[in-house]
Design goal:
The complex is a heterodimer of chains A (158) and B (773). Chain A has 158 residues and is an alpha+beta fold. Chain A contains five helices and six strands. Chain A has helices at residues 22-29, 85-92, 102-115, 121-127, 139-152; strands spanning 2-7, 10-15, 48-51, 54-57, 70-72, 82-83. Chain A has a five-stranded mixed sheet, with helices on one face. In chain A, helix 2 (85-92) packs across helix 5. Chain A is globular, with a radius of gyration of 15 Å. By secondary structure, chain B is of the alpha+beta class. In chain B, helix 9 (365-383) packs parallel to helix 19 and helix 18 (660-679) packs across helix 19. Chain B is globular and about 85 Å long. Chain B starts with a strand and ends with a helix. Classes of the chains: A alpha+beta (158), B alpha+beta (773). At the A-B interface, strand 6, helix 2, helix 3, helix 4 and helix 5 of A face strand 1, helix 1, helix 2 and helix 18 of B.
């Protein structure tokens, strides 16, 4: 089928099987390999993308579900060379180690902060419970999201 | 908003939290992992797994699979031209199964197909004719006379390696103790559960050389192993290692490498990609060894440890992998960081038909530390001593011999760690925490001491070779031969080179491990990366700096090199302010002058603590140790048995800290993995088959499961370390299990002998305790 959607701000038309997994469409067909796959079953959050601004798991979405939607992948989050504040905070606060969870974790954090611009550390942990990280023990990810939230409220540079 | 360039415009000074070099490309999705390759007309490769734990392989019928649409090749053992064996110490693991299947994950055939759908269908179309054999499913049963054998030709039967050590008067000392306690412990198989499952791609070039790009901790060892197994000249094999998406020991050795190499030899020059799914990773990948331990610990009435008897059995699965080495390191840590004059310890790594036991952060130390540190707490309780006081009374100091008899000639900070812990607010306020337990909750505080050896041991050379280059565009390029799987070695390497050569982040480039471009550095393991490679890199960077200064001085007709300084992008004559930029200087230098190399070999223990040459070959013993003291505050739910860790403190002696942020990452991440092992992680098997083959059923910690972890560094300068550091990669892994166990015991008086302490197990123990009353 022909699927029309906005991808990182660009109108995109794809001729694809309606039941093609979105993660495959992004990685294999569009070579947007920033979106990771780790479990293929919705357990880990590595394949998180934003669909109309809300975080979704691209391994559990089919191509037909993209119709008419606006998709942001990790490649579309920064504005040119200017990082999104959450990305900058992840770099600055040591939230990245192996980096395989990072794209999904960043996008889930963007969604979390949109819904709750002033989360407590507990709320950040709960909000990111669907995104697994095996390297950091999560603490510096929480630090980064907290800093990005402060930055978003104009309290400090992230 | 922060521009990407701002992040790169940082001074690279040692001792500061310079943001990680790799973070920018990882948060923007630009970093290409081994799994991210989809270029050109690549083929998919996949393995047909045996699915049974033990069988004689009669025939692999591939005819139907070969004829399936989209299938390019179906290969069996006959296609392997080399030894068809891989392994690190003992090469006992086939690339493709030949006479026998020895665990469910053994590959029996390899398929190359145009797409994943065709691959799946072809794998299903392969018929494997097996004669099922009785399986060896329990490590103790494996040692019983008449047990089926995993490897018929093995002289030790199902014993891969046995080691023992006697010191002082050994077992006879038991009768000299005023207090003697004994217990048995079990720890489970732990899955690495890295986010990036095993992946890579390979291709034979027009020059006939095989290139394998893969997620690995050991590119140089992979090259030798793959060449031998596949019958190739090592010079015709190139291994390229991008940043792995996590490894933790699970990529310390061959995963996809040989299969990919074999596939590429049969793809008519097309690139071939392999990426294990999560279930395949669980079934075929290595695990932390399941362990059974018997301990007897004796002391004098004043708390001086006098005697230790300990026995350890490790389930190494069907292949050595690194099982013998893991066993040996476990033996060397069985008695913890204490002086114990009389010791009788013994351990075995045992072949079974269960999944393969291999390297996992902690490397055998995690298992034995969990037992020893619970024993120490139980002993303190019997002696009515404070657990820290008892440990301090026995803790080793520099110049002491540790319990296996090694003289501790390097920095030894366990006493400092224990003292810092005892003064820390988290520990000092533990009584208030315990006493303010809400209704239906029990609270407790527990602690544990940890130690972890670094490097390979007395026989196998622990060597790193560094190379730095002044590029023609005036940048410093660091050739890192040691893999950065997330621990941050690439970043600290940039920090070292930048610091010595006066460059900021924008003027330093990294070349990641590549057997054609970088120099051999050994494995990314054994808490050795920044220690060994850092030492090598300091030598190379200083050589290059001195050469740059001298040549710049010549060019500027300036005075001695002491008057010259390298600044970002330039060299300046300080008295006159005259400069030559590095790009210009690079053009004037000869090709060979622009690079410098340096080799570092880690010094080893000179004490001969054993005459067993096999144990020495496997690494017994070390002389460089990191130490730590951990404390956990827990709350046990009386109604559900759930254990909630409310606070955690890790005090560590890993020498001086090169980058506080990366250091904390290592401590916090290791503690989280230890907490997973303590509370939720257990790879369950039924008849050798994995019952928990996914992240739905195998539970690793999520963000709400992990408490805030306080990390304190006891910075004792280690004179052999780069900038005074020691390894920090593993030492924090082993404290959580015993600290939580000791806290749970304190909270509700139950001690579980078999980890993890899941809610069900704790609930059951609480109920039994009630029944006993």
């Amino acid at each position: 089928m022909k699927v029309l959607f906005r991808l990182n701000g660009e109108e995109t038309a794809m001729d694809t099987a309606p039941d093609r997994r979105v993660v495959n469409l992004l990685r294999e067909d569009l070579h947007l390999t920033g979106t990771k796959e780790s479990c293929g079953a919705g357990d880990c959050g590595a394949c998180t993308i934003l669909v109309d601004g809300e975080s979704r798991l691209s391994c559990l979405m089919l191509a037909a579900q993209l119709q008419g939607r606006s998709i942001t992948t990790i490649e579309g989050l920064a504005n040119g060379e200017t990082l999104h504040p959450v990305q900058a905070a992840f770099v600055e606060h040591g939230a990245v180690q192996c980096g395989f969870c990072s794209p999904g974790m960043v996008l889930a954090s963007v969604d979390l902060l949109k819904r709750n611009p002033s989360p407590s550390r507990t709320e950040i942990r709960t909000g990111l419970a669907g995104n697994l990280c095996r390297c950091t023990g999560y603490q510096k990810i929480v630090d980064a999201v907290e800093a990005a939230a402060r930055g978003g409220r104009g309290e400090e540079r992230p | 908003m922060i521009g990407a360039m701002n992040l790169r415009d940082r001074a690279l000074s040692v001792g500061t939290s310079v943001p990680r070099f790799d973070a920018l490309d990882k948060v923007t999705g630009r970093e290409k992992f081994a799994a991210d390759y989809y270029d050109g007309d690549f083929l998919w490769a996949g393995a047909k797994r045996a699915g049974v734990p033990h069988a004689r392989l009669r025939k692999v019928d591939v005819d139907r699979a070969r004829q399936a649409p989209g299938v390019v090749a179906v290969l069996t053992r006959d296609a392997v031209q080399g030894t068809n064996r891989q392994g690190v110490v003992r090469k006992d693991q086939p690339v493709l199964a030949d006479d026998k299947v020895r665990h469910c994950g053994d590959p029996v055939a390899l398929v190359l197909a145009e797409n994943k759908q065709a691959l799946r269908e072809a794998l299903d179309a392969i018929a494997v004719d097996l004669e099922i054999l009785p399986a060896v499913l329990d490590m103790d049963d494996a040692l019983v006379e008449g047990s089926p054998l995993v490897h018929e030709g093995n002289p030790g039967g199902n014993t891969l390696l046995r080691g023992e050590l006697l010191t002082g008067s050994g077992l006879a000392a038991a009768s000299e103790c005023d207090v003697l306690i004994e217990a048995r412990f079990e720890t489970p198989r732990q899955e690495h559960a890295y986010l990036e499952t095993e992946a890579g791609w390979a291709q034979v070039g027009t020059d006939g050389r095989l290139t394998i790009v893969c997620s690995t901790q050991t590119p140089f060892r992979d090259r030798a192993e793959a060449a031998e197994a596949l019958g190739l000249d090592p010079g015709n094999v190139r291994i390229v290692a991008p940043y792995p998406g996590g490894a933790f020991g699970g990529k310390d050795g061959i995963t996809v490498q040989t299969l990919l190499g074999l596939a590429a030899l049969h793809s008519a020059g097309r690139p071939v990609k392999m990426w294990w799914g999560r279930e395949e990773s669980f079934v075929a990948g290595t695990k932390r060894h399941a362990a059974r331990m018997y301990y007897r610990l004796g002391a004098k009435s004043d708390g001086r440890l006098h005697f230790l008897e300990a026995r350890l059995t490790l389930d190494t699965g069907p292949y050595d992998h690194l099982g013998g080495v893991v066993l040996t390191l476990a033996l060397e840590h069985m008695g913890g960081p204490y002086r114990i004059p009389n010791v009788a310890i013994e351990g075995r790594a045992v072949y079974t038909n269960n999944p393969i036991g291999g390297a996992f952060r902690g490397f055998g130390v995690t298992q034995v530390t969990s037992a020893m540190e619970q024993m120490t707490d139980m002993l303190a309780r019997r002696l009515r001593m404070d657990p820290i006081e008892l440990r301090l009374k026995n803790a080793v100091q520099r110049g002491d011999r540790n319990f296996v008899g090694t003289t501790l000639v390097r920095s030894t900070g366990i006493v400092e760690c224990l003292e810092v812990l005892s003064r820390h607010p988290l520990w000092k306020t533990r009584r208030e925490f315990v006493e303010s337990a809400p209704p239906f909750k029990h609270r407790g505080a527990g602690m544990a001491a940890v130690m972890q050896a670094s490097s390979y041991g007395p026989v196998v050379p622990d060597v790193a070779n560094a190379k730095v280059e002044l590029t023609l565009d005036g940048k410093i390029r660091v050739y890192c031969g040691v893999v950065d799987m997330g621990q941050g070695t690439a970043s600290t390497s940039a920090q070292i080179a930048g610091s010595i050569l006066g460059q900021d982040a924008a003027h330093v480039e990294l070349v990641l491990p590549d057997t054609d471009r970088t120099l051999p550095c050994g494995s990314a393991s054994a808490s050795r990366c920044t220690y060994a490679f850092g030492n090598a890199l300091i030598g190379a960077a200083e050589t290059l700096r001195d050469r740059i200064l001298l040549r710049a001085a010549d060019f500027l007709m300036a005075g001695p090199k002491e008057e010259m300084a390298v600044t970002p992008g330039a060299v300046r004559h300080l008295p006159t302010g005259r400069e030559i930029n590095l790009a210009r200087l690079a053009q004037l230098l000869g090709e060979s002058e622009r690079t410098a190399t340096h080799r570092f070999r880690t010094p080893v223990a000179t004490d001969r603590i054993t005459s067993d040459e096999t144990l020495r070959l496997h690494g017994f013993g070390h002389n460089l140790f990191s130490y730590g003291a951990h404390a956990a505050l827990v709350e046990v739910d009386e109604l559900t048995g759930a254990v909630d860790v409310k606070g955690y403190l890790a005090v560590s002696d890993c020498g001086r800290v090169m980058n506080p942020q990366i250091y904390e990452q290592q401590i916090q991440g290791a503690v989280a993995q230890g907490l997973g092992l303590a509370l939720s992680e257990e790879l369950l098997l039924d008849g050798g088959r994995v019952l928990t083959p996914d992240l739905t059923t195998y539970i690793i910690p999520t963000a709400p499961d992990v408490p805030e972890i306080e990390s304190v560094a006891v910075e004792i300068y280690e004179h052999t370390g780069p900038y005074g550091l020691k390894g920090v990669g593993e030492v924090a892994t082993s404290g959580a299990l015993p600290a939580v166990a000791n806290a749970v015991a304190g909270a509700c008086g139950v001690r579980l002998w078999s980890a993890p302490w899941t809610a069900e197990r704790v609930f059951e123990a609480l109920r039994n305790r009630e029944a006993l009353r």
